[in-house]
Amino acid sequence: MESKLLAIKLILKKGKKRIFLKNFIENLIRALIVTLLLTLLISLIARIIPIYRPFSYGIYILGVSIIVAFIYSLYKIPKDNNVALILDSLGLKERVISSIEVDSSNPYSSLLVEDTLDRLRNIQYKKGISLKPNKRYVYIALSLFFILGVSYIIPNSKERIAEEINALNKDKKEEIKKVEKLEKEIKEDKKLSKIEREKLMAQLSDLKKDIKEADNEKDIAKAVEKSLKKLEKDSDKKLNALYDKFNKNNTTKDLASAIKNDNKEEMKQALDKLKSDLEKLSKEEKEKLSKDLKEGEEIDNESLEKALDSLSKSLSEGDDGELTKSLASLGSALEDDGNERMVAAIGKGLGNKAGLGSAKGSGDGAGKGSGDGRGAGKGSGTGSGAGSGSGNGSEGTSEYGSGISNKGPGEGAEREYEKVFKPSRIGGEGEKEILNGKINNKGKGQSSLSDKRGVGSLGEMIPYNEVIGEYSEKAMEDLEDFDIPEGMKELIKSYFSSLED
Amino acid sequence: MNIEEKNIKEVLDKIDRVKREVGKAIIGQKDIVEQVLIGIFTGGNILLEGSPGLGKTQLVKTLSKVMDLDFSRIQFTPDLMPADVVGTNIIVKDEKGNSKFQFERGPIFSNLVLADEINRATPKTQSALLEAMQEHTVTAGNNTYSLKEPFMVLATQNPIEMDGTYPLPEAQLDRFLFKLYVPFPNLSELKEIMNITVNSKGEDIEKVLSGDEILKIREILKEIPMSEAVEEYALKVVLATHNEYENAPEISKKYIRYGASPRAAQAIIATSKVKAALEGRYNVAFDDIKYVAYPALRHRFFLNYDALADGIKTEDIIEEILKSQME
For A127, A179, A310, B63, which has the most beta carbons within 10 A of its beta carbon? Predict the structure, then answer.
C-alpha cells in the first residue's frame, strides 16, 4: 500500500505543477489587464498633464505586474489536500483526498488506495486542469489593448511640452550629478581648511538648489554662472587680502603684484627675490613687515594663514633659518592653494553650462585672453571663447585655461541671435599705431591710435553675439582703468553676461 | 471486530443483492428503497409520509422477507393504548393452578415494526413507541425487556387526513433518522405494480441476509473513511440551518425559526457512509452528503411564518444551504 500511496502522491505533485501553471497564466492575464488599464489611464492623464512617453510606463508596469503575478502564484500554490480536491472534482468522488488522509489501520485503506490509483491513472488530469485562461479575461485584455492602440494613434498636444520638460530634467540631473561629484572631491580634499570646505559646500548646495528650481536651460546656466562668479569673487577677495598685506611694504610689493596678477611663475620669482631682500632688511624694517603681515583681513586658507604667521614670527624674531622655511611654506601654500584648485576644478566641472558667461583665466598664458568667441577675457589668463567663437585663446597651459567659466572651442549649441546694427567706417577701420601708454595692472599693455579716422557710415545688421564679445571685452578692460566702486563693477559684469544670454 | 478486505467486498456484494431483490417486489421508488436500506444499515428509524396505497406496507414486508426479519404492523388509532403497542401483564394460571402475572409482549417485539399513521394515536401511545425506538427496550412494571436486534421502526403519516390527529412534536421528530416522502408512481410504474399485484406476475423474493449479518454489516460500514473536508462540509450544512451562524445563507436567516440539532449531523455522517457503500465506493464523497441531507434535515429544522407566507419549503432551504456551503 505504501508504494501505491507514493504513486498517488507523485501524480498529485504533477497535478500541483499544472495547477500552479494554470494559476500563473490566469494571473498573467490579470496582470496584463491591470497594465493595460493603468497605461490607458496614464495616457489619458498625459492629455491633460504633460507626461513624457506615457506609453513607456506600460512596459515598467508590465514588468512589475509579471513579477507580482509570479510571486502571487507561488504564494498561492495549493497544498496537497487542495490539489487532491481539485483532482477529485474530475470525477473521482473524493477518493484522492480520502486516500491521503486514511489511516493505514483502517480496513478500507488498502482497497481505497488501490481503487484511487487505478482511477487516477485512467483520468486525463491534463484535460481536466486545462491551461486555457478564462475567456472573459482574454476578451477584456484584447478590448483594452485595442482601446490603448487607438489612444496611441490619436495625437497628443501635450507631448512636445513633456519632451521639453524631460530634457530639462535630464539636464538638471546631469548638472546636479556634476555638483555632487565636486562635493565629494571637496570632502575628500585634505588641503582645504574647514572654513574653505564649508564655504565651497554651501555654495555648491545653493547651486544645487538653484538648479532644481530652474525653469529652463537658461536658468540652469545662469545659476551655474552665478555660482561660479561668487566663487571667483571669494577667490578674488582672498587674493585681494593677500595683496593688501604684501602691498603695504615696498619689499614685498613685487610679490603683491604677482599675487594680484595671480601669476604663479611671477610669485615664485618674487618669493626667490624676497628671500634675499628680507635678509638685507634691518631689524626695524623686519618688525614693521611682520606687523603689516599680521594686520588686515584674515585669510580663509589654513596653510596660507599658517605660512604668514610663521613668516611674521620669523621676521619679528629675526631667525633667518625660520625665515627661509616660512618663505618656502608660503611658496608652497601659494602654489598649491587648495581652494583655488577646487574652484578651478569646479569651473572645469561645470564650465560647459556656464560657458556663455565671461571667462576669467588664471592660467599662465601670455595671451590677452580675448578670443574671437563670445567669452571676454580678462587678465593674463587664457580665457577661451565659448560657443561659436573661433578663438581658442589657448596660449596658456591648458586648453580651457585654468580659470573658471571656460568652455572649449567650438562648443556650445547653435543659437539664433537678434541682429543689431554695427556701423562701419568709410575707408575701413584704419591702421593702428603704437603709443606708449602707462603700465597698469594688466602688465605691459599697449593701446593704439590711428591717424586715419573713418567717418561713421552705413553699417550692417549682424547677430549681436558676434559683436557682444568685443563690447564686453572693451567694457571689462575699461573697468580696470576707471575708478569704479567694486559693487558697480559686479553690476556691469553681470549686465554684459546677461546680454550674452 | 476484525474486518478484512474480503468481508468488505462481501458486504458490498450483499447490499447490492438486497437492492436487486427488493426491486423485484417494489416497483419504482428507487430512492425510497435505497433510503430505507440506508436506515436499516445505519440502525435508525424512518418516518414515511405518503398517501395511502403507495406500497409502504409492501415495502416493509418485502424488506423483512429479503432480510429474514420479523415484521409486525401496528395500525395507530386514537383509541390505541400504550399496552397495545408494548404489551401488558396478564393474569395466567401456573401448573399448580395459582394465578400469576405474565408479561404478554406486544407487536413492538419484532425486528421491523410498521407503525401506521402514528399521528393518529394519542401522545401517550406515541411516547410508548418512541421510548422503545430510542432505548430498544420496553419497561413494564419493574421489568425491562430488550427488543430484538436489529430493531427498526418505520412510522407513517398520512398528509391528507390531518384533522383530529396528534402531530408528532419536534423533539420526537428528531428521533427519526430520515423523513421520506413517498411519491405517487408514474404510468409505467403503475402498470408494473398492476402486473405484480393484480395480474399475479410477481417474482419470488429470496432471502439474502439475516439479522445477525445486518448487525455485522452495520459494524463494517461504520469504518468507511471520510475525509476532513467532507466531514467539515456535513457539519457546516447542519450549522447553516441556524440563522445565527455567520456563514448561513440569507434564506436560512430569513426563514428558519429553529435549526437542526447535533443528531442531524450524526444522522448525515452515519448515513452517508452507507450511501457510499451502496454506490460501491470505499470512501464518503460530497455527493453522498448532498444525497442524505434532504431526508436527514427536512424534519429537523422549522420554518417561520414568513416562509409560510412566501411559499418557501424546507427542500428549497436545504438546496440553498448545500450550494452555499460548497463554495
Answer: B63
